[in-house]
Amino acid sequence: MPETPAFVYDQTAIDRTLSTFEEAAAGSGPRLLYSVKSFPFLPLLRRIAPRVDGLSASSLFEARLCAEALAGRGGLHITTPGFRPGEIDEIGRLCDFVSFNSLEQFDRWSARMEGTASVGLRVNPQLSFAPDPRYDPCRPHSKLGVPLDRLVPAEVGRLERLEGIHFHTVFDCASFEPLAEILAKLENKLGERLKRLRWLNLGGGYRLEGDLGRLAGFSTRLQRDYGLEVYFEPGKAVIGSAGYLVASVIDVFNSGGKTVAVLDSSINHHPEVFEYQRSPRLAEVCEEGRETAILAGGTCLAGDLFGEYALPTRPRIGDRLVFEDVGAYTLVKANRFNGHNLPSIYRWDGEALHLEQSYGYEDYRRQWGGEPAAQ
Ligand SMILES: *Cc1c(COP(=O)(O)O)cnc(C)c1O
């Protein structure tokens, strides 16, 4: 049993996901990249590097970590609205594929990629599929990518260094229908000009439980019709359902007629609970649970609540609770609010748990100005 709070990732689940993808994409299916930002954990990156065609990053630090994990094997892709003057040359050296977010950035930096990285452009297909504008890259006045309207073939003709196009438009999407619509729009808009490109990056945001045959079919057709290398870069689909947050109950009491169980974790270990008003799924929850309890984080914020859950029995001090499907966008957004420690990270290999990372008071102290301990 892990010490809590703990973040556990199931290596066997990740391996299964990668195998399923490999089978579906065998032949001319898209090349698989893991988009690391949802869980950029170096031991995991090293483990999956041999099984993917590369990694995708969104910043210089992520790119450095990816380069370390890839150790010369596989391609490193990057796109971000935030390339800075002081880092652009290192970005070019580290990355194999650099997609600029605007025509302005393209004009400013693309020549600097000469001889080091293949130059692409992130486009905004201007088709919205996300229900919430906070995570819709195609929202009105979006900052993400060149609106396809601006990318008339004449404009593209001017971009002689352009070798690839990148788009990323959906979040946690179960169907590949948005992809079909985007590709139709892109082909309609750019037509034969696509033949002069080398690659197309379809982004991530899709779940992999859907019709992978359909995804592979898009890739096969794009290769056949335009000679494009096709990349697909999911993050959450690789790590989301493989990750668990394990917490212990440290207090239970009644408040205004409801049971409140205080945990040794908090929504600061899963900030999207608060950001997007989600309630993570709990393993113990039972359909006709006789007891309901509010599961509360242990910080001073009144709204630090995971939600109200139906449980088989009233929670007791010392009980372990396991939140499921929380592998993505949890620890990477976690903070030490109230001076609470971050969860330890464990890997499950199908037989045993392995502690791979833990944090302590020294890490906290260093974050808040403590000089390194004298040796
Ligand atoms: C976040 C992101 C991804 C991965 O998204 P998931 O929802 O985790 O699959 C892929 N590409 C780009 C450009 C991204 O910003």
Automatic annotation (TrEMBL):
It is found in: Cytoplasm. One of its GO terms (molecular function) is diaminopimelate decarboxylase activity. One of its GO terms (biological process) is nor-spermidine biosynthetic process. Its EC number is 4.1.1.96. GO terms for cellular component: cytoplasm. Keywords: Cytoplasm, Decarboxylase, Lyase, Polyamine biosynthesis, Pyridoxal phosphate, Spermidine biosynthesis. Its cofactor is pyridoxal 5'-phosphate. It comes from the Bacteria. Homodimer. Belongs to the Orn/Lys/Arg decarboxylase class-II family. NspC subfamily. Catalyzes the decarboxylation of carboxynorspermidine and carboxyspermidine. This is Carboxynorspermidine/carboxyspermidine decarboxylase.
